[in-house]
Automatic annotation (TrEMBL):
Assigned protein family: Belongs to the UPF0382 family.
UniProt cross-references to InterPro entries, sorted A to Z: DUF423 (IPR006696)
Protein name: DUF423 domain-containing protein
Taxonomic placement: Bacteria, Thermotogati, Deinococcota, Deinococci, Deinococcales
TM helices/strands, residue ranges: 47-63, 70-89, 95-116
Gene Ontology CC: one annotated term: plasma membrane
Pfam families reported for this sequence: DUF423
Length: 121
């Protein structure tokens, strides 16, 4: 593992993503429900859901006590995947949907790396 991989704050990133995810979920449920159409609200909610999946995975990986290679991949994936959906939902700019799969691929890679690391442990 590289020094950058060993020093990535996996649990901290998970806690921050979870806190932001809860705040954004509440914002969506209370402030956006009446302002967004059902399709854009569904995109927004998908972003929150996947952000929370990544946050919980990061918290679990970070609590293992072992260095994690997956943390950075999962964090970047969540930021790009969820972030693009948030901007798409709030702005209506549809071309951002082309960015979302990049984040999804990073999330998948992060989970595959986590599985490979767990297999080695």
């Amino acid at each position: 593992m590289t020094p950058a991989t060993r020093s990535f704050p996996t649990a901290q990133a998970g806690a921050v993503l979870a806190a932001i995810g809860i705040a954004l979920g509440a914002f969506g449920a209370h402030a956006l429900k009446a302002r967004l159409g059902t399709d854009l609200l569904a995109d927004y909610e998908t972003g929150v859901r996947y952000q929370m999946y990544a946050a919980l995975a990061l918290l679990a990986l970070g609590s293992s006590g072992r260095p994690q290679r997956a943390g950075l991949w999962l964090t970047l994936g969540a930021v790009i995947f969820s972030g693009s959906l948030y901007v798409l939902a709030l702005s209506g700019v549809r071309w951002l949907g082309a960015v979302t799969p990049i984040g999804g691929a990073l999330l998948i890679a992060g989970f595959v790396i986590a599985a490979l690391d767990a297999r080695r442990a």
